[in-house]
Every structure is written in C-alpha cells, then in structure tokens.
C-alpha cells in the first residue's frame, strides 16, 4: 500500500470511527409527531408567499429560520415526513426529508408547491434537538369531526332528518377518515426506517405529540348544529367539544400512548374580528376540551386567530366586495347599476375594473399578490400565517412534554 496510502486509509478509518462514535453517543429515540385535520392542516399557502414574511419586522426572524444561506427554503435537518392524503377514495402517501411542498397536494406523491403548519413545526422540532424527527401527517379537505373523523368514543352518528330525507351520511361510513388516519399511523410506525433513514431500531421511537387543525366544516354545518332560538342559552356547537374530547381519548387508546401531548389548533379564520358570532362560538367549543381536568397538562388549545394577517384580510374584504358586485351585475340585482339588464359583458367588466380601482390601491393589490394565495377559509393562503401556526404548535407541544418530565 505504501506509507502515503496507509496514512490516507487510517484517516478515513478514524474519521468513520469518530462519526460512528458520535452517532452512538448522541443516539436518541425517534421523535414521532402526528398532524391531522382538514384543508388547513393540508395547507394552502403557496411557496411564493414565503418572502412576504420578511416584510414585517416582527416576523423577519421567522423568515431567517426558514431560509438557507442561498436564500431558499431549507430542507429540515434530521426531520422526515410521511403525508397521507388524497381526493375521494384515491388516497396515497408522499414521504421524504421535510421541506416545502408538503402542503396540500393533488397527487400525494408530488410536490404541491404549498406549505401548511408542518414545515415550521418540523423546523422548530429540529432546533429543539431531542432526536431525529418523523412527522406523520394525515389530512383531507372538507371533512367534519361530527361525521368524517368521528371516533369510536363519540358513539354512533345520529343521522338527522335531512340526512334521512336525502339518504346521506350512512352509518357505515361514519368515522372513515379517523380509521384511515389511525391505520396509516400504525403502518408507518410498524417500519419507521422506510420513511426515516435515521431511525435506530435499538433506540426505538417515542410518540411525542399530536396536532389537530380542523373545524371549518363543522362550523358551517347548520344541519348537524342547528341554529338556536334567539336568546337561547348555551353554545350550539357544544357537541363538537364532546366529540373532540372523545377523539383525544381514542387516539391515545388506539396508539397506546395514554398521555400523548395533544395540541388543538383553534380555528382562527377572520382574525380578531371574524364578523360572525358563530365563528366566535365555535372557537370556544374547539378550545373547551383543554380545560377538562383529565386533560390538564397534556392538552393545549392554541388560538390561531392572532396569526391571521389583518392587513391582507382587509384588502381581501375589498376584493370580496368586487366579487359580490360582479354577481349583482350579472344577475341584474335590483340595487345594482345593471338592474335594467342593459349592460353587456364588456361593460360589466369595465364597471368592475373601475369599481375595484376605487376600492383597492395599486400598493394594496401588490401586497395581496405577495402575501396571499387562497381564500379566507384557508387563512388567505398566507405562508406567514401557516408558519406562525407551525411554530406555535411546536412550542405548545414542547412545553407539555417538559411539564411531563
């Protein structure tokens, strides 16, 4: 081999030994977090809106944590994700190192160009340094807790009069998405190394947390949560609190983790002033389980309304007025400029263009384009909002874990 070759071989061997020794010394159980919900857990913030985070001095440091030295979103260090989703019965999995693109996906296996709360949640867990991290995300848009995610402890689904009349919500399909979520989590945990190459069977894994971000479909469901007579006492969404408490118990039972830290992401679309009493009442129903004595110290309610971008929301309200005006003109609304129906399509478009110019300045239009990419029910598709939510969910989870030790 020769002296030079021998020294080179020794350096390679010593380097490999030190790497191995470091791995042995720092080996820790795989930390597993499960993220579940509907479209907002999927995440509809386009990656193009990430830079907007830096325009606010309060969130500029958050953007720095998300970007690498090249100015591009980083791939999370020592964090992997399995994302189970789909449309209709076509469900599938996308997995790999955590980076952007694990937001809402049309094809589960392909980068969707969006982020949800999983991205900054994973980055925060990586910074916490409690071991390699695996995120198991299961989310589908347009799903309710009262039916789609109904867990066994909530009891049989009580079909309403309308359900029976329209022959919908068959009992056999109640809880279908709860079962899909549990089955996928168990499948991934049966062989974590398939998704996470850092998994060490000798160290095993620890179920470290569960995050729930869902609620919009229940909030707008007047069939299952009927309006109460004016002046009636109580919250018409109170059953949601019971179903969510049942889901927490069932998740822990089915996954064999009696004290699994559970974060409730309390619906916050519309921000501090959503303009709807139902919205506010529903938020309270969502948060309620965290106050139950049995969940003290292991269930936390994180309010997401403070993360709503008020400036973008105000501009979006103006856009909605333009959209409503278009509806009125095309349907010959009695109070619209086209009540007599004499305007043609070209005239309607010009009217709307002028109307929008009076409501929205060019600067506001540019801001909305930079920061928003979806509707209000999806938190405007604003990466700033989803990034703040992800970090808040991680912080709440870590605080609960610290309190359990």
Labels describing this entry:
two-stranded antiparallel ribbon; 9 strands; single chain; seven-stranded mixed beta sheet; 405 residues; alpha/beta; 13 helices; 14% strand; disordered N terminus; 41% helix; globular
Can you offer a commentary on this structure?
The chain has 13 helices and nine strands. The protein has a seven-stranded mixed sheet with strand order 4-3-6-1-7-8-9, with helices on both faces. Strands 2-5 form a two-stranded antiparallel sheet. The longest helix is centred in the N-terminal third of the chain and has 24 residues, at 3-26. The chain is α/β, with parallel strands linked by helices and 405 residues long.
Summarize the structure.
The protein is of the alpha/beta class and 405 residues long. It is built from 13 helices and nine strands.
Give the radius of gyration: 24 Å
Strand order of the largest sheet: 4-3-6-1-7-8-9
Helix content: 40-55%
Q: Please indicate the percent range of residues in DSSP E strands (runs of 2 or more).
A: 5-15%
| Mean pLDDT over the residues | 93
- Overall SS class: alpha/beta
Shape: globular
Q: How many distinct helices?
A: 13
* End-to-end distance: 54 Å
H/E element string? HEHEHEEEHEHHEHHEHEHHHH
Main β sheet profile: 7 strands, mixed
> Can you tell me the residue ranges where pLDDT is under 50 for at least 5 consecutive residues?
1-25
